[in-house]
Structures are given as structure tokens and as C-alpha cells.
Amino acid sequence: MRYVIIGGGVAGTTAAEYLRKLDTEAEITLVSEEHHSLYSRVLLPHLIKGKVPRERIFLKKDDWYYKQNIDVLIGVVVEKLDVKNKFVLLTGGRELEFDKLLIATGGEVRTIDDDLRGVSYFRTLDDADHISQLLNELPHGARGGIYGGGFIACEYLNLFRHFEMPTTIAFRGKHFWSRVLEVEAGTLINDHLVKEGVEVHVSADLVSLTGETQLEGFVTTAGEHPCSMLGVGIGVTPDFSYLSEAGVETGNGVKANEYLETNIENIFTAGDVAEFYDSIAGRHLNVKNWMNAMSQGRAVAQNMAGTKTPFELVSSYSINTLGLEMIFVGDVDKDAVDKVHVIGSADAGGVTQVYERDGKVVGGVMIGRNTDRKPITDGIKEKRSAEEVIKSVNN
Amino acid sequence: MPKIRVLVDEDLCIGAASCVTIAPETFQMNEDNKAWVLDHGAEEGGHKYERWMEVTEDEKENIVLAAQSCPTLAVFIYLEDGTQIFPDM
Predict the structure, then answer these.
(1) Could A327 and B15 be called an inter-chain contact, meaning their C-beta atoms sit closer than 8 Å?
(2) What phi and psi values does residue A199 have, to the nearest 5 degrees?
(3) Which residues of B touch A52 (CB under 8 A)?
(4) Inter-chain residue contact B71 with A370, CB threshold 8 Å
């Protein structure tokens, strides 16, 4: 059996690890764009702040792949997929044949049109090294700018705070996560940032950067914002062109059923790139977090090795932003539910949102209300009514 | 049954809760959104980030799996003789 895995992140590497456990004889090839063995992206902020030494972020040592008899091709991407003759064409012209293929390529950061020295993105270890370098070069008290209103923006807020940089943030929506949060929760976050001394500009579309070679600021529809360094966090956008050409169905991600099988036989997907049928939510979801990627890596290995195992997980993500805890659980797309119940208030310092579809609770967001996490997570798993869950939360 | 010491570094813990998902008998989130350590669901002596416990081999394997799933490697597991079995040294 020849397994080819495209993507050396946590989904792909976990799948390789479990495939080896399930099949000691198989040929396993891992195709990785990055020049590093598996590391934790979640530890990158800790690395930049110096809270963990560099060697701690690596989850697999360089010789692990060799010891597991997993062939790794680094610094390569797939340029073409031939589903009929079952091979992928790699950069450099090599053709790699497979019996079963896993697509676990994650996503590429969405970039802005302009670039100057001082502009940064934050997804990979190389990005983290770039950020560290920029931070090192800045004089004490230099201003940091952030464009975006999501998780990466939160990471930059914490980083700039750690390095004692006054901060300006601008984003397109009226508040953070405008497709997820209602006004009350959004207001709570905006108020918190202002209280923490951050200059916040809402409904601000990026117009241009200022500076010749070195960044001096950025301009949005809300005004001009001087800064010495800019962190851009405006989402990820995977490249599906080679998959579409091959007939693999894609939407927000690579479409898959609950067994993480795509529409093409023997081709599977997992991790940030997958848009899989979530049997708990009852619809296709594209989930981009560590827990989901690692769990799918395990589940997809089972399915690739021939043991049909439906993937089931109520995944969650949480981040502390300048002291405010934010937790997201399950299906939290406002447009995909019947009703979003809002509990608490910005004035009270805590807002919980409970997402209801067909009478059942399917998701929850807690801003400054950590203890609501368990009743909501249990409620989603057990498909309880929103009414019942809200009662347990209010108590 | 092997005796192990399970420790959560509260400074590294970011509340991802993957340990709770995999081993809810051993980990539960607290009000600070960090993971307490439990001994088979029990909290003798109150809430703690560190605890000795006797476990079966299967239970030990599952606790190691929970530790492996932590994106910040905040869970540490030691054997009775002090050997650290996770994270790999």
C-alpha cells in the first residue's frame, strides 16, 4: 500500500504516525512545504515572548520520520493531481504515485496588496522569526499597528502588549468576528480594548501603506494610522486550483463526508483545509483549529487503513486577549442557525452566545464567562434543547 | 498498577481543552479557563494543577494521548522513579 500525504502540519503528520501504527509495511510519503519538522503553531506566540525555548516548540525530532520509516519530501508542493493514473506532480517535476492520498495542506495567509519592511503575517515558524526580528530592531515604545479583527489580531494585541508597544487596531467590521458575534459581545471586546489603552478603529477598510521602504503607517477609510510595524490578520485562503482541475469537489474547503473521504475514491482530507460533514452539527463545517486538525489526522488514518470510523468532535478554540477570555465551541456561524441567544452584557463584563438550530444547541461563544463552557459543550454533544442549556447557563 | 504524576503548567495552558476532550476523568477546565488535574474524576484535597494517581496501562496511555494533544505541551507526566515520560526529553 502506498500512502501519500500532502501537508506536513499536525493533521498530515498525525495521520502518518497513525497509519504507521496501523500498517507496519506500507510506504508512507509526507510532502511538506515547510522546511521544519512538525512544530506547534500554537506555541509560536510563547516562542516570540521567550516563554519557551526554540527546541520546545518542535513536536517531532528530525530523526522521528526516519525511525518511523516515513519518507519526507520537504520544501515541495503539489502542482497537479491525476486521479485517473493516481499520481501527484511535485515542484521539480517528480511524479509520485499513490494508492491512497490525503490532502492536509492547511491554508495560506491572505495578504494585502502592498509590502514594506515592517509588515508581517503570523502563521508559520518563519513568520514568527520574522516578527521577532522586526521587534528586535524597533526602538522601545515604537507603535504597533494591526489590521484585522480575528484570532491573529488577538495574538498581535498580546505580543505588542508584551513588548510594551502602544497599539492601533483597525478592522472592516463594526467589531471582532462580525460573522460570529452579536453586537453585545462585539461591544464588550471593543470596550475592553479601549479600556486597555488600544486605539480602535471600526468599519475601516485598508487603503494603503505609508513609507518608502520602511513602514511608517497605514491608511484606512477611518483615517491615517502611524506605526512602525504592522501585523496583518485577515484570514487564510487555500489554493484549490489543482484540486478543482482534477475534479475534487471544493467549497470553503475540500468537501468530505463524515469519514473524511472526498468525492473521489481513495482521496481523503483532514485539518484546516477540510470542509467535512459534521454529524453533530448536521452540516458541512470548515474548522480551523489545532484540536480539530489533530483529531482528524487520527480519524482519517483509520479510514484510509480501511476501518470506517466517522469523525465526531465538538471542537473548541480559546484565546485570552489582554486579560479577556474568549471561547468558541461547536458551530458558531450566525448565518447558519435559527437563533443566537445572548446572555449577559457588555456592562456586566461577560457575554455568552448560544446558537440554536432546529431547537437544539449547536454552538456557543463565551466572552469573559468561562464557566458556561462545560454546560454548553455537553449540551452540544448530547443534542439538548437550547432552552434547557440556557437554563443551566443562567444558573 | 503504575503510579504517575500528572502536572499542568498553568502558565503554558491556554485553555484549548483538548486534554479534557480526550481524558475528562483526569482533566477539567476551571473558572480561569485552565485545566485542573483530577484523579479518576475526584479532587481529593481540593483543586490542583498537579496530582499523583494510580492508573491502569490503558488509562496511562489515554492520559499520554491527552498530553500529546495539548498544543502548548502544558501537560507533564512522570513515573514514580521521577522519569518524565511526556513530553519526550
Answers:
(1) yes
(2) -85, 115
(3) 12
(4) no
Contact A297, A10 (CB under 8 A): yes
DSSP A99: S
B18 touches chain A (CB under 8 A): yes
Q: Would strands A199-201 and A339-345 be described as parallel, antiparallel, or unpaired?
A: unpaired
| Interface probe, candidates B21, B22, B27, B62, chain A, greatest A C-beta count within 10 A | B21
Chain B residues whose CB is inside 8 A of the A41 CB are 71
Q: What is the pLDDT, as a whole number, of residue A394?
A: 76
A328-359 pLDDT, tens per residue? 999 999 999 999 999 999 999 999 999 999 99
ipTM: 0.89
Closest alpha carbon to A359 in A390, A330, A316, A315? A390
Contacts of A66 (CB under 8 A, 6+ apart): none
DSSP state of A133: H
> How many angstroms separate the CA of residue B15 from the nearest CA in chain A?
6
Chain-chain contact of A291 with B16 (C-beta, under 8 angstroms)? yes
Q: What is the pLDDT of residues B19-68, one digit of tens each?
A: 999 999 999 999 999 999 999 999 999 999 999 999 999 999 999 999 99
Look at the pTM and tell me if it is higher than 0.90: yes
Bridge partners, residue A342, by sequence: A353
Cell 520574522 -> residue:
A130
Contacts of A59 (CB under 8 A, 6+ apart): A10, A13, A37, A38, A39, A40, B73
Partner residue opposite A42 with nearest CB, options B28, B31, B71: B71
- Scanning A236-279, the segments in alpha helix (DSSP H) are 241-246
Q: Calculate helix-pair angle for A386-394, A373-381, nearest 10 degrees.
A: 160
Contacts of A359 (CB under 8 A, 6+ apart): A385, A386
Grid coordinates belonging to A165: 508597544
